[in-house]
Amino acid sequence: MSAVHVFALTLWVNLMFYSMGFAVELPKLKAFVNDLAGMIPQASVDELEQRLFRFRTETGRSVTVLTVTSHEEEDIDAFGRKAFKSLPLNEQELKNSFLLIVFRKEQIVDIQLGSDLRPLFPQPQANHKLQAQLDLYFGGLRPDLGIHGAVHYVFKVIKGEFRVDGVTEEEKLEEQSKSGAGAGAVFALFLAPFLAFFVGGAWGIYATHRGIHTETRLFVGAVFGGGTAKLVATLMSAMGSYSDGLWYFILVISIPLAAFGSLTEYWMSGDWSGIPRDKDESLKRKPSDKMGI
After folding, report:
1. What is the pTM for the complete model shown?
2. Is residue 115's pLDDT more than 70?
3. Whole-number Å distance between alpha carbons of 230 and 255
4. Are the beta carbons of 106 and 160 closer than 8 angstroms?
5. How many Cα atoms sit within 13 Å of 14 on the Cβ side?
6. SS3 at position 223
7. CB-CB contact of 65 with 151 (8 Å)
8. Distance of CA 61 to the CA centre of its chain
9. What is the average pLDDT score of the chain?
10. Does 275 score more than 50 pLDDT?
11. Are 101 and 110 in contact, with CB atoms under 8 Å apart?
12. How far apart are CA 252 and CA 255, in angstroms?
């Protein structure tokens, strides 16, 4: 054997041992949750295991979570295949299995799939969507919440309620809920009628001072109510869109409230009202009345 061959063989052996030194050693894995990186509190582990067990019982599909501190320069896909084969499942069960791997240090995810589940999770879209679920909580106090979110997403895809290569109506609603899109509708529903009534009341006080006829103040009050509702709805739409039906419902409530608010002489009658009126002098109290003392 020539010196060149000896040198090449020595170099190859050294590279093999070098690469093996960086391989992550895996302990015996469990079927549901393997938190090797310590990312999930015990109470959360128990809850997640119950969810995964119930899902396998209901669907016959197995989902496993594995967290590791780092892949230590080992090829991620090779590590994933090694972990997938280490699952305590037989060949038939592996065909319907999903492995979610979370690398804590690198803050990335990887997935390994059985042959029956691969059509449901096309790459790279599947990795991107699961990564987005965990990115919300990586670096925070509860990274396990991102894992719960990713598992929830996997459940929905397997059940056919979500699609990795598209967006279903249910997925749109859930994304809107997560981003707070429904907050705009809630604020508009409660804030617009209240402000419409307040604006109508302010207009009613002004109309009382000016002696404006009831018909006019009712009409202007209704206009102010509709305008206030429109302004509030426009501002709140920045927090999320809502249906035309809800907008008309807000308008139907706001206009009568503003009109009622303009009738201050009815609902603000009495000395406490703060609205000056001509009163019967004979009804004023005299010092001699002593007000019941």
Report:
1. 0.56
2. yes
3. 11
4. no
5. 6
6. helix
7. yes
8. 26
9. 79
10. no
11. yes
12. 6
The contacts found for 48-52 with CB under 8 angstroms, 24 or more apart, are 48/144, 48/147, 48/148, 48/151, 51/151, 52/151
Supply 43's token pair: 């109470």
Q: How far is Cα of residue 273 from the mean position of the Cα atoms in its chain?
A: 46
Give me the sheet containing 97-103, strands edge to edge. Answer: 33-35, 62-68, 97-103, 108-113
**Amino acid letter at 286?**
K
Q: How many residues does this entry show for the chain?
A: 293
If pLDDT is split at 50, 70 and 90, which confidence band does 18 have? very low
pLDDT for 240 equals 53
Quick one: pLDDT at residue 293?
47
Q: How far apart are CA 18 and CA 42, in angstroms?
A: 36
Closest to 111 in 3D by CA, of 136, 88, 143, 77: 77
Q: Measure the CA angle with vertex 49, ends 45 and 52; round to 5°.
A: 140
Task: State what percent of residues in the chain have pLDDT above 90.
Answer: 39
Residue 209: CB atoms within 10 Å: 11
Helix (H, G, I), strand (E, B) or coil at 148: helix
The neighbour count for residue 95, using CB atoms within 10 Å, is 16
Higher pLDDT, 94 or 141: 94
Amino acid making up residue 274: G
**β-pairing verdict for 97-103 and 62-68:** parallel
Which domains does the chain carry? 22-178 (3.10.310.50), 182-270 (no CATH)
Q: Which residues contact 194 (CB under 8 A, 6 or more apart)?
A: none
Q: What is the largest CA-CA distance in the chain?
A: 132
* Confidence at residue 78, expressed as pLDDT on a 0 to 100 scale: 93
Q: How far apart are CA 193 and CA 228, in angstroms?
A: 8
Residue 214: CB atoms within 10 Å: 12
Task: Name, in order, each residue with C-beta under 8 angstroms of 88's C-beta and a sequence gap of 6 or more.
Answer: 28, 29, 30, 31
